[in-house]
Amino acid sequence: MAASTQNQAFNALVFLYKRILESPLEGVEAARTRKEKRIPVVLTREEVKRVLAFLEGTPELLVKLLYGSGLRITEAVRLRVQDIDYGYKQITVRNGKGMQDRATPFPESLAPLLHNHLERVKAVHEQDLALGLGAVYLPYALARKYPNAEKAWSWQYVFPSRNLSVDPRSGVTRRHHIDQSVVNKAIKQAVVKASINKKVSAHTFRHSFATHLLQRGTDIRTIQSLLGHKDLETTMIYTHVLKLGGEGVVSPLDDL
User: Fold this and answer.
1) DSSP code, position 108
2) Active-site hit among 67, 137, 157, 238
3) Which sequence spans correspond to the domains of the chain?
4) Is 193 in contact with 220 (CB distance < 8 Å)?
5) Active-site residue, selected from the candidate residues 64, 67, 72, 102
6) Angle made by CA atoms 170, 173, 177, in degrees to the nearest 5
7) How far apart are CA 81 and CA 159, in angstroms?
8) Catalytic-residue membership of 207
9) Where would a tag sit more exposed on the chain, N or C end, judged by fewer CB atoms within 10 A?
10) Which CATH number fits domain 45-246: 3.20.20.210, 1.10.443.10, 1.10.3660.10, 3.40.50.150?
């Protein structure tokens, strides 16, 4: 089984015996498996253009943010209106991986497209308010601290769902953010139409963001900060693209 699956099962057993059964496991010799390092799939700039050419609507805008700002798919769909700063040309990612905030660049060329998109989103939000709805989920009990914030425009999702849904925990009818599967399906179809023979996912555009910044000469520490990596070693995986050929070796066939 995969390393992550094995470690999850191991942790579950440790938790069961320590916290539930109150009989900690002692003297058990079990080796933790390590996740093998894999070279990430990266698209060339030309391939990114080809994929974007076959996207439209909300998926197109979302994928452009993934590539233009280096966001994870979960971070992109959870963006709030107030997280985008047009003046400083940056996006603030709230509660990213590791529950940390970070700032990442906002593509200036995307501003007109996003502005038109938000105008449509705001119209839908105003319709919801007219129906007595329009509330959005707020984390960390902010809804109790700021009673009017859940209906404020600044707290609304940039990419809301088309349909209203009932929150199973509170029973409140809300408009949640768009589901990730919508974007993933659109990417899969676009890759097929673009005739790209690579295993492309939403995360591939984040990999491409980091790799293309490296090619332009951006400092590795800066890229680490933009991606939100705790360990520089995680970011160093993108340096493979700076080598021409495997490990920087030129194939002997090219010398014939």
Assistant:
1) G
2) 238
3) 1-36, 45-246
4) no
5) 72
6) 100
7) 9
8) no
9) C
10) 1.10.443.10
3-state secondary structure of 250: coil
DSSP state of 95: S
Q: Is 156 exposed, middle or buried (0-12, 13-18, 19+ CB in 10 A)?
A: buried
Q: Rounded to the nearest 5 degrees, what angle is found at the Cα of 87, between the Cα atoms of 51 and 139?
A: 75
Query: Does residue 59 surpass a pLDDT of 70?
Result: yes
Over residues 13-38, the pLDDT tens digits come to: 989 999 999 998 887 777 777 777 77
CA-CA distance, 168 to 202, in Å (whole number)? 28
Write down the pTM of the prediction.
0.83
- Tokens representing 101? 């905030």
- Catalytic annotation, pick one of 97, 151, 176, 240: 97
Longest dimension (CA), the chain: 75
State residue 197 phi and psi, 5-degree precision: -95, 55
Please confirm, yes or no, whether 216 is among the known catalytic residues.
Answer: no
Partner residues linked to 102 by β-bridges: 93
